[in-house]
Structures are given as structure tokens and as C-alpha cells.
Batch of 3 targets.
Target 1
Amino acid sequence: MDLEVEVASLKLKNPLVLASGILGTTPSMLVKAHKAGAAAVTTKSLTLHPRSGYPNPVLVELRYGLINAIGLANPGVKEYLKECLELQGKLVDVPVIFSIAGSDVAGYEEAVKLIAEHGMGKAFELNLSCPHVKETRLFSEDPRLTAQVVKAVRDVTDLPIFVKIGLTTNLREVVEAAIKHGASAVTAINTVRATAIDIEAKRPVLSAIYGGLSGPAIKPIALRVIYELYEEFKIPLIGVGGIMSWEDVIEFLMAGASAVQLGTAVYKEGLRAFRKLLNGIESFMRKEGLSSLKDLIGVAH
């Protein structure tokens, strides 16, 4: 039974990818996720320089998902690369996607250039849409800024570039700009800007007030975006947003995604989520008499 899929030039043994921000805080966790069944793993969004992020509380658990406002806290690209080099022997066979964020075009370009110079990673995912960091969020709300970032990054790497977008009113223009200037695939969608109120304290729960909603609550929205993008563009799509079950994976593939990312599912169930979903996908394929998972991509159209 062939579960292999392709996203641009990246060949994956199955369609499941660890989403950015979940377990990707250290390279050692990336190795564990890969061993657990993730075909590829995405790092936490890294910036050129270290970021402390927002103070606690930064996470709200809901019945239908999570709201987080980490604020892109990370040790910076140089420190993360140092950790990667220490584990280089274990990472050599792991398809690592480096998620990059920044507050300006130069920040994205320099971070990618530094990683490329070390020969690390199989692809880059440009986080242009973090909903609780204003500078980053603006990039996927303005096609001109999207174009500038993608072009700058394309000039310093030949690796696949995945552009991660959020909900925006000018979705078509943003994706067109990304494709025109060198994007290899589109990841959709990022978490959705949201908030929660503590009724006892009579104030927002999160220190940043606003955070990013993930989990089952946003799945139908993410699925809609993937469906629309597949209708409009000839570019590989990576679906992300509330994928908790193997049925969810099948839906995203049928809508047009070539692969999917798991975030909240891993937070809730741990690394066993990957094998659980793969088992379900294989059972569905046997029932449907399918020999290749690629045959499902886009069939809902």
C-alpha cells in the first residue's frame, strides 16, 4: 500500500507532517516525532535573533481547541543550528522543514541564508501569518510584502519554499504573489486570531490579550481554504488546522492537499497520534481498494 506523497520536490513516505510550534522546540524532539511516524517535521518558528515572547499565561485550553500566544519565543537561528549540529548524525535522515519568521524582509532572508550555508533542512516554511505578532501577521495581509519576502528568500536558497498563510480578505492576491516570486507550496491555514475572558478576574486570560485559535474549531475553515486554493491554483498545498482523526486527513486530501500538518492532535494525544492516523488511513484505503494515496488528492472536485 503506497502512502507516499510529494510536495514540490519533497518526497514524503506518508502525508503526515509535524506542524510548527508543536514539539519542534528542540531538534531532539524532531527526531522523536519522525520515529513516531511523521514523514517530515517542522521546527518551531525561528527568528534571526532570539525572542523571549510573551509572559505567562500564553495558552488557553478549550473544548474545541487551543488559543496560544507564545509570541514566537525561540532561541534564534544560530543557537538552534548549534543544537542541530550536535545531533547531525541523528537528523541526517529526518526531513526537517525550517519554519522562519521575522519582523522585516531582511530578517527572513538572513535567517534562511544562515541555515542554507550550514546545509541544514529539506525545505523552508515562511511563517507570514502569526496572528498574535503584528509584524509577522502583516506579511500575508499585503501581497506586496508577501512578494518581497518570498523573492528575497528564493534568492538565497534552491530548497522548496512553503508559504504559510492565515485568513485574509485578499487570499487570491497573496497566493498569486507568493507563486509569482518563487513559492513551491502553500501551507494553509495558520491559527486564527482569537481571545478568551476570565469572568472571575474580569480580564483577558492571555497576557497578550489575543492569541491564535487552533484545533477542531478551525478545521472547516481550513478545509474550505484548501478547497478554494486547489480550484484556483496549480501549486502543492499543505493542509493544517484541526486535523484530529484519519477522517480529517482524508477530507483534506480530497479537498486538494498533498500533505497535512498535525499540531493540536499531537498536543492532545502525544506522538501516538501519527501511528493512530496512519492506521486509519491504511484501513480506509483497503476498504476502498486503493493502492496509492495520491489517487485521493483532489477527488472532491
Target 2
Amino acid sequence: MKTLRFYFVTVGLILASLTLNSCLNDDGYSLGDIYKPVIATARPLNSDSFYLRLDDSTTFFPAAPLNIHYQPLKPQRVLLFYTILGEKYHGYDYAIKVNRLDTILTKAIAEDLGAEKNDEVYGKDPVNIVSMWVGDGFLNIEFETYFSSHIKHFVNLIPGVDAKEHPYQLEFRHNAYHDSSTKKGVGVVAFDLSSLPDTEGKEVTLTIKVNTFDGVKEIVKKYNSGTNTEKQPELSVTHFEDTI
């Protein structure tokens, strides 16, 4: 099982410049333009290449990622720093130079182990939700809690109490493993919603139960299988922690 370590170090691949084919700049884009970082999904193409898709379905092909040794084996959420090189590149909306790419903890919905075991394994420690949105088929959560640099925390999304009758009711769980730190920090995690029943083109209500520092709350989102229903919010952090 994957865990989340809460300490602020820059993670991901720091990418250098690459000599570029001049044909990529025919659309008037400048190599000096640095675009605002966005959260995207890195999607594998084959054993050694991938493309990126934004929440609004815009597609990027990384035409100039110098010495990039990153290869997602399955769809992976990332924070992308990029420069546009040109439009309509081999079937993709844009060709880009990847300036930096930080991986985000990306997980499937976890197995329901039963009420007692869920508390034991997944925990019920509180968090504060900074932001939550559905994008590109993922439930993305930015949350705040207390952490130590030497203790790994465990976060999961699990089915709700009556999952068979209400499959779109879920619980966000946090196990702090008795971390008693007074230092507050922010974590980001994305959950793949593809295991939920297909909504067959209809919009349904997604309810996420969260134990917060102000008590248990239910956050309601709109969900339509695999599509984006919300605008991506501004994140309070610009790099991510040790998530993979």
C-alpha cells in the first residue's frame, strides 16, 4: 500500500533545455514563455513515451523533455510546468517543452475492509480540506493536517457504509500513525474514480465523508464518468512532497 510522507522537498524531474526543431515554433510561441503550472494526467502511450491531458481534455505531447526518465505505467496525476512549442502536433492539441514535472500521489479507491478494520487500517484522524474537485476522472484533494518529517501518513478513499445501495458515497480516510507533531502542512492526492459504476452520460451526486478538525462533514460534488465537472482551483503549494 502506498503511503504519503509529509516533508517539503521538491520531487519530480528537473528538466533542462533541449535544442528544438524550428518547425515547432511556427505558430509564434516563444521558448521564453513559461506558462502557469497545472495539474494534468500523464497517460502512457507505450513502454517509453507518454502524453499529458488537462482536466478540460486539452492534450499535450512532451516534444522536448531532456533526459526525462519518467514513464507512467498507468494514468498518473502530475504538476506540470511547461512551455508551448506549437499547435496541432501529430494529433495532439499542443507540443510542449516540459520544464518540470512533479508526481502527485495517485491511488485507486481502496477496498472496504469492514467498519472495525477500516478504522484500524485506514484510520480516522482529522484533516482540513483546502480544496476538492473532480477532474479527468479523478477526485483531487488538497488537505491540511499536522505532520512530522519522520512519520509516514496514510490517506485513502474508501466506499461508504452502504456501498451497494449508494456507490457514489465515499469516505476520505487519514491514518497519522499517532503522529503528535504541532507542525501544519498541506498534502495533495488524486483518486481514480474509474472503478465506480458508469454514470452512462448522466451527472450524479458524489458525496465524500471527511473527518475534519471541526467534526465529520460531507462534501458534495457532481460527477459524470470520466469527465471534468469543475474548474481546477488554485493550489496553495507549488511543489509536492515525497509521494511515490
Target 3
Amino acid sequence: MKKIAPFLWFDNQAEEAVRFYTSLFKNSAIKGDVRYDDEGANASGRPKGTVMTVPFQIEGQEFVALNGGPIFKFTPAVSFFVSCEAHEEIDKLWDTFSEGGKVLMEFQQYPFSEKFGWLQDKFGLSWQLNLGRRAQKIAPFLLFVGKQHGKAEEAMKLYISLFKNSSISRVERYGAGESGAEGTVKHAVFSLGGQEFMAMDSNLDHHFTFNEAISFVVNCETQKEVDYYWEKLSAGGDEKAQQCGWLKDKYGVSWQIVPTILPELLQDKNPVKSQRVMKAMLQMKKIDIDSLQRAYEQR
């Protein structure tokens, strides 16, 4: 299990989207599903027995897809940078993602790449396709715009201070006369827990920013870990966004601080036990492992 996994909020298309993505990439797998029980259905308004979440993997990157309703929509503030080794591969991905999608940057040659394009697919999720080899084929890409413009480097420094095995490997800045604000991040590569991320600032008039449609799950083994990441990442963030392990940090990026035992308890074969765990979780902001276990073991 990776330390951090992107969590994708769909309206009612999680299963379709997951099948689509895993069909496009090699080394991909769907890892089952979790369905809404009575407690989850009552809290979300979703039909009981329908699919709630679908964990999946593409090219070594772990994801979770959620059927959460129409509350949040994907924006290009978080996209996924895909490194393609061959023209045939990148051309096929671009053609497939383009069907029903929206082009954000034309698919062509740029000063920084022989072949690159940025688009939103038919589900609204954003992808950056680039011809070139990297050890990690797919990397989450954070775009700091609007009120968050100019804070990419500050955010990266905070994040790498919190996670073990983390570092900033490259920062390229806008120079005088370039399209971005001089000195801000033009492109950066950093790693958290050994997983590669990318970031940049943009001072263009974007009508979007970070939201809950894409969050990052932090998998925690102990309550001490849960407490640590909750305290550090929620500092200065939006307190109204804190519920069921979710939080928003001071840059507007959403995280879920999740003990690894939680999915196990929620997927227990005894529906009475799993529903008790769900009910207990829905009453929490920060997840408390002992309370979950008491709910599970209740007689």
C-alpha cells in the first residue's frame, strides 16, 4: 500500500471511469468495491447497495474512485502527468482521452517537450500527456492559481517536511519577461513518501482552484500517525471542511487522514459490525481508531 493515494469524486460514474482508465494503461487492476450500507446511504443520499468506492491501480499509481453525487466537479487545479515513452503510445492516449473531452493545451511540440498536450477527459478529469521517460509513469500535478498563486514552493516545503522519504528534486522559476510572475514556480518536481508529484504557479485568470473533487488519502498505521498528519495538515486550513477524516489545508488542497484498519472494518462480512463502524465514523472529524474498534466489537 502506498502512503498517499489520489481520491476521485465522481457523480455516478466511478465504475465506468475506472473501467475506462484501467483499459488504457498496462499494469492496471481494479481491486474490488465497497457498497453503501444503511448508514452510508442515509448520510449520503445514495441508494443502499450501490457502489460507494472502487480502489484501482494504473501503472503503479494507486487511486480510489467514489460515487459521491454531483456536489464537487473536477478542475485542472489537480491533473495527472503521464510520461509516455513512444509516439504510438502518447498518440493513442491523446486520441482516446480527447473523445468527449476538452483540450486545455494543444497536442503539439513545445520548447519544453517534443510532444505534449493537456486535456480534460469525458469525466472532467485532467491529464497532461508528455513524450519522455520517467521512473514514475503517472504523477499528480498541483496548479496554484488565484489566491494560491505564488504558494507552490511554500506548499512543497511544508509537505516534504511532514512525510518521510520526501524531497524537492527540481524547481524551475519564471524569469523576467516570461508569461508567469518572475520568481514563481514554472515547474517543480518533488516526492512525498517516495512518490513523485509535480507543481507550478500560474497567474493567468483561471476560474477554478483546488476543491474536494480530488483529495489525497494518507494511509496511517497508528493513531499517533493519524493525530500527527491531522494536526499538521489542518493547521491554518478550513475547519468547516473537517469531517470523517477529511480536511483542507491552508492552500485549499484536500486530504483524507485514514487509518489502514478503517477499510478492513467497513468491508467486514458481518453487515451489523460494518454499519456500526460506518455510523461511528460519520460522527467524527478526525478518525479515532479506538472508537472504531469499540463500535466494531460492541455486543
